[in-house]
Design goal:
Elements (H helix, E strand, L loop, with lengths): L7 H15 L5 H48 L6 H5 L25 H11 L1
């Protein structure tokens, strides 16, 4: 007998067979109910995991697209849209936001790395 772990039905059958082997020592009346409950919980766990992974991947794609747009804006010396600048207060996404309005800051407020970057851009 071959085990087909590439399909959902094959994985279900494999798990069902293994659970049957493990539950042989339990009374028949409890074994089937227990096995059905375990399979239902396992399916729910897998479904939740897949949904969470899909959400995370969608967020990664969205953030990457935003970063690419910001990079293109910086390369073409365009200003950053107001909605992106208004998100600057969020510490979670600090790495995805870039402040290119260095003219509004005083010289002492600008970090050293930004000052060096500005000097390089002037050359």
């Amino acid at each position: 007998m071959t085990i087909d772990l590439d399909t959902a039905e094959g994985r279900k059958q494999y798990l069902s067979d293994k659970l049957d082997d493990l539950l042989d020592g339990i009374n028949e009346s409890y074994g089937t109910v227990l096995m059905e409950e375990l399979l239902n919980r396992l399916e729910l766990t897998i479904r939740d995991f897949n949904e969470e992974m899909k959400t995370l991947c969608d967020q990664l794609v969205k953030k990457q697209e935003e970063r690419q747009q910001l990079l293109e804006m910086i390369k073409s010396n365009q200003s950053i849209p107001a909605e992106i600048e208004s998100n600057k207060a969020s510490p979670v996404d600090i790495d995805s936001q870039i402040d290119i309005k260095s003219t509004e800051k005083s010289e002492s407020d600008i970090p050293a790395w930004e000052q060096k970057l500005a000097k390089l851009e002037k050359k």
